[in-house]
Design goal:
Length: 102
Amino acid sequence: MNTSDQPSNDKLFMAKALEATIHIGLVVLLLYWCFRIGQPFVQIIVWGIIIAVAIHPAYDRLKSALGGRGRLTATLITLFALILLLVPSYLLSESIINSARE
């Protein structure tokens, strides 16, 4: 190996190391920004996973009872969940409005 090539090899190594450091820094910055943007939604996502895991056995049973129709089963479960959420919300808001009128 020629000793005159040594300084150019060192410069090339330093340039590549600097470029890699900048790329890694940008990736870390991007990951940080993504985490900061998604942070308010982490709790919602975790609850969605918990509910999906809890409902899955009922989904399987209903799907087999309906002859393997997955879309119909998903639609029925979604409608049931909406009714389960909206009816108490409506009753609560109606009660609050009546109390405010009195």
